[in-house]
Amino acid sequence: VGSLAVQLAVQRGASVIATAKPGEDDAFVRGLGAVDTVDYTANDVVGAVRARFPSGIDAIIDLVSRGDAFTGMAGLVREGGYIATSLSAADVEGLAARGIRATNLMGSPTPEKLAALAAQVVPGRFGSRCSGRSRSRTPRRPSPRSWPARAGSWC
């Protein structure tokens, strides 16, 4: 999901700062268009971003933070900015009082939304990779190693 978010944001003109481990993961997100990365395994992400952008940033798509961690991330967004979370972590009214638009993303696919996204999945438009590992502890379909790395694969 994060790799797709990076690409969609870049296509819309954003300068993306992604969280990634050094090495292969860093190279991967930069290859998707991220202009900078923060090593989430070695750094305080909020502190690292604040040090690089002391006046704040315009927007965040946060797919992993809850509670105090999300509050810290939201503190990076400047007035007039936007933050989205897939974990229902945003206090939408509280952030609005600070002049920040917030969204708790909920999946509501429709044929029209899926068709619009599918139209963008053309060769060279979106990148993906199957690493053979899953961050999920819940088993999914057959091993990602048994599926080819292509749109629609289970990786």
Walk me through the structure.
The structure is a single chain. With 155 residues, this protein is α/β, with parallel strands linked by helices. Helices cover 32% and strands 16% of the residues. It contains 6 helices and 5 strands. The protein has helices at residues 2-11, 24-31, 45-52, 67-74, 92-97, 111-120, and strands at 17-19, 36-38, 57-62, 77-85, 101-104. A 3-stranded parallel beta sheet has the order 3-4-5. Strands 1-2 form a two-stranded parallel ribbon. Strand 1 (17-19), helix 2 (24-31) and strand 2 (36-38) form a beta-alpha-beta unit. It is globular and about 40 Å long. The model is unreliable at 132-155 (pLDDT under 50).
Write the layout of secondary structure elements.
Blueprint: H1 2-11, E1 17-19, H2 24-31, E2 36-38, H3 45-52, E3 57-62, H4 67-74, E4 77-85, H5 92-97, E5 101-104, H6 111-120
Parallel strand pairs: 1-2, 3-4, 4-5
Low-confidence stretches: 132-155
Gyration radius from CA atoms, angstroms:
17 Å
How would you write the strand order of the largest sheet?
3-4-5
The helix-strand sequence is HEHEHEHEHEH
Q: What portion of the residues fall into strands of 2 or more residues?
A: 15-25%
Let me know the number of strands: 5
**N-to-C CA distance:** 11 Å
Structural class: alpha/beta
The dominant shape is: globular
Q: Please tell me the overall pLDDT.
A: 81
The biggest sheet, with number of strands, parallel, antiparallel or mixed sense and barrel status, is:
3 strands, parallel
Task: Estimate the helix proportion, in percent.
Answer: 25-40%
How large is the count of helical segments? 6
